[in-house]
Amino acid sequence: MQLRDLASQSLWTLLLAVTCTAVITACAAQTQAPAEPAAVASPAPAREPFSSTYDAGDQGPPVLIRNATVLTGTGARIDDGDVLIVNGRIEAVGQSLDAPTGAQVIEAGGRWVTPGLIDVHSHMGSSPSPGVLAHSDGNESTDPVTPNVWVEHSVWPQDPGFEAALQGGITSLQILPGSANLIGGRSVTLKNVPATTVQAMKFPGAPQSLKMACGENPKRVYGRHDRAPKTRMGNVAGYRQAFADAKDYVAKWDKYRAELAKFEKDTDKDAIRPIPPKRDLKLETLAEVMQGKILVQNHCYRADEMANMLDIAQEFGYKISAFHHGVEAYKLADRLAKEGVCGALWTDWWGFKMEAYDGIQENIALVDYPKGGCAIVHSDSEEGIQRLNQEAAKAMARGVRVGLDISPERAIRWVTSNPAHALGIDAQTGSLEAGKMADVVIWNGTPFSVYALADQVFIDGVLRFDRSKPATTPRSDFSL
Amino acid sequence: MKYFSIAASAAAACLAFSTASAQDVLIKGARVHTVGAAGTLENADVLVQGGRIADIGTVLAAPAGATVIEAKGRELTPGIFGGLTQLGLEELSLEPSTVDSELELTAPAWQHNWRPEFDITPAFNPRSSLIPVARVEGVTWAMSTPSRNHSLIAGQGAAFTLDGRFDAALEGSKTLFVNWGSDAIEGSGGSRAAQYMLFDQAIREVREPNTAGEGALLLPEGRAALKGYLAGGRVVFEVERAADIRQVIRYAKLNGMKPVISGGDEAWIVAQELAAADVPVILNPLNNLPNDFDRLGARLDNAKLLNDAGVRIAFDYETSHQAGKNRQLAGNAAAHGLPREAALAAITAVPAEIFGLGAERGRIEKGKVADLVLWSGDPLEVTTLADLVWIAGNPVEMRSRQTELRDRYLDRLRAK
User: Model-level pTM?
Assistant: First the structure.
């Protein structure tokens, strides 16, 4: 088995694998803690370092997809439904839409249309295929607290996993650092398009997230060297000290800024210009987390540990976007719903370690059940990401069997709008609504089937995969 | 809630005869996938007596006292094969105290005492918490194998029935497991070439024991164990690369072994040779990525291409905790061109044949052991669940630690 969190035989290899998230185009610009406000008078840079250079590609004529079963991702289903794409955006969704002049019409009778699928938990590119030693770019496991690393700097765009995921309808994905560390670094959210650079894949405007990890992995990775953390209490001390340091850091910068403002207003010619604090890339990231600019994606299996993490978040004033791999999320489903924290979960992974022993196949359905519940099907696997729809189907069937009322239009949210929400990109994508990015999949039938195949995948209105034209399927350099 | 009522009645039915053993059962009106010459029978009845399939027909009479199950058109298949697993040999993969599938050898490969006599059979725990989890998914038997980490020769495994009996190993299924290719390089002196060299040495020690002096790979027990496999014994070679598969076929035949390929991500490239040599392949049809340089040719229609060429194929997800996922593998192979009957056979009849159990298991035929699953729908479909499961004619209680956790927390959520 390949990635499966840090599960089985190739454990130490896996430890080298990481995940993280996306970056924002304007991230550095929004940051308050770092960057001394441009005292170095250079010409305005063409773009922020590492910002997105994503280009959706040439927009053809409008596309009208007709007479499909449409799952909008908002919980609605439209039979004999139409979806109109104009200039890379969803123009309209409904029935009997008129085709604009020159539109390409796709007759989709008998087929199903959904938003593009989104995986909130991938290590693609940072733990790519082939899994050679030289590709161990997933875990900066040299220190348990590494919020300074950005996983995008590990992402190899030639990972053939990307094109395989595209064929499974994945249009956006978050790459996370691995879980060796308490705080593993920043994530990056990508559009699943072939590219030579990671910048050209970066989802424009998506916030970055911080990867944090509970439980067995960090304490095993460091504890075996008699380093902290060696215990779960050591884990918690580690998170809290990191954020406590970050609070001090913020205070230092606030003080500096106040002094600078005073200096600049001051008419006293003898006043000394204040010296800015040393920039600390670790604390800068944590500061942005506390400011709400960077989201938190927290690997955490056990319900009791999730509760501890919620308390830590409250103590330091940040919000956890989602618990990932929460095999015990069902034990805390009502609280997660109440606090607006998503559960990013597998359908049937369990038992590969003690903290995974209480995994149940109804986990996703139970997290979905309370009012406001936010269930997400995630993969953490280059195999699973290729068929997130099947995992959602399995989870749906489990819920239905125990009497929960879960329809396909509800369950599709677990792989579309809910992950978009957890990544802070739900205003742009994750559902078929007028004005949103035209990230759209046409399936050969219901996606809740083992036989379902994506026929066509659009990203920002551009046809990126067409099953009927194998010659046009993207192939990475490595696949040649 | 249609599914719920089926599940509830299934549970009630199970409880009703959980105390009886090998009671007569008449399953009426099923869509019966015999996975045999009779093909798929519509609206058929299956009579189970004494733990075996006594009769298959259209209107069978229920013997006195028999439990009658109205299938109402639901699909009935043979019990599902769980793959090459460590079922009964592990609870938590990362907790060494719960793992019994491995012999740790710390010396370099060329100094090892190789231990082909290592046999996991006596370590099998039929009361493992994993087994009910697999069983309620319709998995009635699996291969339990030595883990393949430390040595070219991992040791011996066997097939086990999963009904919870203590003496669960299935007769005639004993198999030797051998690693090959880059996955085995650490245990074989650093290269493929060394694998052939070392294996040659081991074989010579068996054939000519007097040559096995200082620095022998095998102990007398090992020579005895390997000798059996060099006389037509079944040997599973874990190997992916096409070139290696060809060598393994040639090498195994040359040395009197009956090879089975496990892995085989590039097997489609040498499909004709596999078919000609009648060497079966146990594969994971989801593998389509070049995870290493042994698998650059991995592709989703591997199963279809092998089947088209006449190679016998079986499926394996290689994960004890998710043995039930083997059915999803079959469905995906079907989605990528494998005929559905062949996909079902790859998780029932074919693995039974490969491991010497074909006369007893793997098909719904008169006289065979009654390992049966009644499904809520298409048996290859991910939204389908097992409604009822029988092993050797005994109804399986559709409970596991997972269902108990589920019920406890679902009740609490509903009460809020």
Answer: 0.93
